[in-house]
């Protein structure tokens, strides 16, 4: 029995490559779209979080507290619970609870605050003297944001988005619980529940390849753009 | 060029109100290199930041190049700041930009077209002596080179005033001198008004025309550098003057001498300007029956002339020594009997 199991894993005889390919495509789709929006919302939130803090360009206690509260709450809710909590919101927004698109709102709402914190940390790392020098040169706030804050924090922003992207791939696996599909879903339903460990193995390996490739690309650009 | 009247700045801290700058009145002329010296915490950093409103004064007025800085709108203030260059102790360059791009930054802020920017950047790179380094990143430069980039950047928009915030404090002595030479050069070439703050008297001596000494938020003494060196009135000023006129070990060495038997009188002579070249010691020996032993001497150059100090040991009859001291006083050489009276 045991030999049979090992044999079936090695021969990959239970793997349906069409299903595997479909699940991979769903994971890629969910991750990429969610990453795009996470990047946009996270950057905006992170910038606001930084700029409205005490002593910064748009110092504003109320706005800062609201954004900080949002970020902290949504970053603390375990993702699997967040998906379930957002079901009514998602069905109203997307119109369905089936398929990978249904996972997107939860993915974005869960990951954007995560990235926002990283953006804030990246911006805080910028030498205050550089901002002061820009003010002394007569730069406006928008010039400081687009010509100083963002360019000076690019390496940290990229390494942040790399970490976020990897976390997002993890989140998409959980999105299976609401029927979103993807590799995680496949590994759980066809692999675990039907006792086909070879399916779980292949799905895991594909996810691993994604993570390694992402990390490699992220590191490459972080190092290339860091002129410090 | 710059007028400060009743300028004050109070910070609210956890330990209550702290007055960093206290009722300062000051006028700085066009084309002048004006130095403010003080220890850290004296308020000089706050003072220089109020000249371009990086710190907003609590009370009082700041006028730079005919503009009343504290009444300007945000927009007008930004325009006024483009007329005031500033360099910093830690250079504050953008590390993500090359040397040329850093120098180009203030031009971008002003909205100068890109072709004009290019030629201006080239000029500035030449002016500060960084030929061929335009494509380097700040991290590839030495401290002195970084400050040169800072200076080029500060001069990009042809400012009327250059503010230097401890611009040489992070540099080694040799590099400091080369940066100071560059500042003198720029001051002469462009007739630029330079205001600098420092805690090193060496910097004041080397490049300033006038100096103000700050202590506890107030200016305790000010005047032409040579005058202040010749007759420092306040205790604080004397301490700073000592930094450049006496080698550090002097005091210790002299104290050791005082303990020796039959040391006699020890005098400190201070020469200023033309006096420094006179043959005073020869005169003394010829005219009075005294023996003179030179202990220590130093000559320094300021923007307006030389300045020197000499420690001598005089032995002989009491009345001869007194006559000799009177004679020195008549020669308009400052003399202080530091031992043996």
TrEMBL record, chain B:
Biological processes annotated in GO:
amino acid transport
- Molecular function in Gene Ontology: ATP binding; ATP hydrolysis activity
Gene3D superfamilies attached to this UniProt entry: 3.30.70.260, P-loop containing nucleotide triphosphate hydrolases
Q: What does UniProt give as GO cellular component?
A: plasma membrane
* Keywords from the named record: Amino-acid transport, ATP-binding, Cell membrane, Membrane, Nucleotide-binding, Translocase, Transport
ABC transporter domain sequence ranges: 2-241
Kindly give the InterPro entries that the UniProt entry links to this protein. Answer: AAA+_ATPase, ABC_transporter-like_ATP-bd, ABC_transporter-like_CS, ACT-like_dom_sf, MetN_ABC, MetN_ABC_transporter-like, NIL_domain, P-loop_NTPase
Claim: Chloroplast is one of the keywords in the record: no
Give the matching SUPFAM superfamilies.
ACT-like, P-loop containing nucleoside triphosphate hydrolases
Keyword presence, Manganese: no
Task: Give the UniProt family note.
Answer: Belongs to the ABC transporter superfamily.
> What is the protein name for this chain?
Methionine ABC transporter ATP-binding protein
């Amino acid at each position: 029995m045991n030999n049979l199991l090992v044999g079936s894993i090695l021969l990959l005889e239970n793997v349906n490559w069409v299903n595997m390919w479909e699940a991979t495509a769903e994971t890629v789709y969910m991750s990429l779209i969610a990453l795009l929006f996470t990047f946009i919302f996270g950057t905006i939130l992170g910038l606001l979080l930084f700029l409205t803090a005490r002593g910064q360009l748009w110092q504003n206690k109320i706005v800062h507290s609201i954004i900080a509260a949002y970020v902290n709450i949504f970053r603390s809710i375990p993702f699997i619970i967040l998906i379930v909590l957002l079901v009514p919101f998602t069905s109203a927004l997307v119109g369905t609870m089936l398929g990978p698109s249904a996972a997107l709102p939860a993915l974005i709402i869960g990951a954007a605050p995560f990235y926002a914190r990283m953006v804030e940390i990246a911006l805080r790392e910028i030498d205050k003297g550089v901002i002061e020098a820009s003010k002394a040169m007569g730069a406006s706030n928008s010039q400081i944001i687009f010509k100083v804050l963002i360019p000076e924090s690019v390496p940290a922003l990229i390494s942040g988005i790399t970490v976020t992207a990897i976390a997002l791939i993890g989140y998409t696996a959980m999105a299976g619980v609401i029927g979103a599909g993807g590799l995680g879903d496949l590994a759980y339903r066809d692999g675990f529940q039907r006792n086909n460990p070879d399916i779980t193995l292949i799905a895991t390996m594909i996810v691993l390849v994604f993570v390694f490739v992402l990390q490699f690309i992220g590191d490459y650009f972080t190092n290339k753009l860091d002129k410090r | 060029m710059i007028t400060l009247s009743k300028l004050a700045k109070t910070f609210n801290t956890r330990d209550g109100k702290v007055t960093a700058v206290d009722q300062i009145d000051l006028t700085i002329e066009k084309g002048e290199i004006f130095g403010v010296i003080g220890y850290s915490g004296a308020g000089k950093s706050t003072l220089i930041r109020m000249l371009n409103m990086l710190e907003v004064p609590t009370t009082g007025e700041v006028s730079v190049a005919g503009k009343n800085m504290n009444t300007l709108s945000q927009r007008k203030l930004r325009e006024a700041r483009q007329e005031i260059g500033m360099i910093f102790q830690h250079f504050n360059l953008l590390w993500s930009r090359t040397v040329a791009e850093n120098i180009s930054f203030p031009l971008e802020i002003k909205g100068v077209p890109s072709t004009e920017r290019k030629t201006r950047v080239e000029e500035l790179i030449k002016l500060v002596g960084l030929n061929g380094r335009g494509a380097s990143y700040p991290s590839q430069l030495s401290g002195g080179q970084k400050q040169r980039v800072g200076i080029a950047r500060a001069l990009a928009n042809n400012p009327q005033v250059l503010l230097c915030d401890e611009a040489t404090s992070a540099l080694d002595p040799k590099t400091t001198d080369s940066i100071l030479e560059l500042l003198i050069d720029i001051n002469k070439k462009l007739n630029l008004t330079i205001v600098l703050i420092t805690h090193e008297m060496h910097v004041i001596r080397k490049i300033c025309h006038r100096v103000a000494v700050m202590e506890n938020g107030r200016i305790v003494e000010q005047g032409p550098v040579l005058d202040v060196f010749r007759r420092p009135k306040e205790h604080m000023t004397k301490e700073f003057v000592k930094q450049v006129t006496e080698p550090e070990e002097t005091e210790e060495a002299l104290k050791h001498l005082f303990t020796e038997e039959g040391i006699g009188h020890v005098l400190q002579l201070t020469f200023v300007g033309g006096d420094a070249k006179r043959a005073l010691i020869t005169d003394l020996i010829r005219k009075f029956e005294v023996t003179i032993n030179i202990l220590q001497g130093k000559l320094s150059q300021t923007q307006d002339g030389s300045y020197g100090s000499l420690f001598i040991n005089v032995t002989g009859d009491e009345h001869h020594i007194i006559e000799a001291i009177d004679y020195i006083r008549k020669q308009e050489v400052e003399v202080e009997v530091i031992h043996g009276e």
